[in-house]
Amino acid sequence: MERFSSISMAVVRRLPKYHRYLSELKKNDVKRVSSQELSRITGFTASQIRQDLNCFGGFGQQGYGYNVDDLHQQISKILGLDKIYKTVIVGAGNLGQAIVNYTFFEKSGFIPQAIFDVNPRLIGLKINDIKVHDVENLESFVKDNGIDIGIICTPKSQCQKVAEALAKGGVQAIWNFAPSDVSVHDDIIVENVHLSESLFTISYLLKEREEVSKAKKY
Ligand code: NAI
To answer: Ligand 1: which residue has its CA nearest to atom 42?
Structure first.
């Protein structure tokens, strides 16, 4: 994937976490937070947090910490959450429907314009008021409607074909849930999501805990 700045992906991947914790603090009406406090909540070290935020110009004040509202707003801006992105969801099955019904994405500026499927029983239906179209029309719809992001929720066998249609239509990014990496031109941002990685991490930690407690007994 082509990058346009020297900010490392490790920093980029921590930003949404900061954003989420700051949203919680904001909701709880917390006005000010120190980097130590942010460290306790996020699990990152205070110096890591300061270093990350310094990449974008700092925002904290010595002896005061961070103003929660300001920092939340700045990180929203850095993440581009003050913009609107048009999305399409491809695959109107369990996951596609769950994504369309989860309104948090829409509230965050990712606006679903259409859903696509091959199943004639789904085509023409509306899910959360968004129409399901025939996937045959995916490329032209993306082109005609200036779609920014394609969300792939099809079976693994179909994801490459779908990614190519999205790419030809001109999307800037693909959020791929199918359990197979897709290959498209380098200037398209691709994020592959695997919930199983998170679940298997739990599995590892459970196993580790069990082994340690067994070892302690002997
Ligand atoms: P599903 O079987 O309920 O839905 C798949 C939908 O895709 C169906 O409606 C089907 O008609 C449609 N479809 C098939 N070929 C298509 C094509 N060429 N163009 C457009 N639509 C097409 O499956 P489910 O449970 O919604 O899962 C969808 C995908 O997401 C699967 O690949 C699954 O492995 C993956 N998945 C990934 C997760 C993750 O953490 N990344 C979590 C859950 C599912």
So the answer is: 195
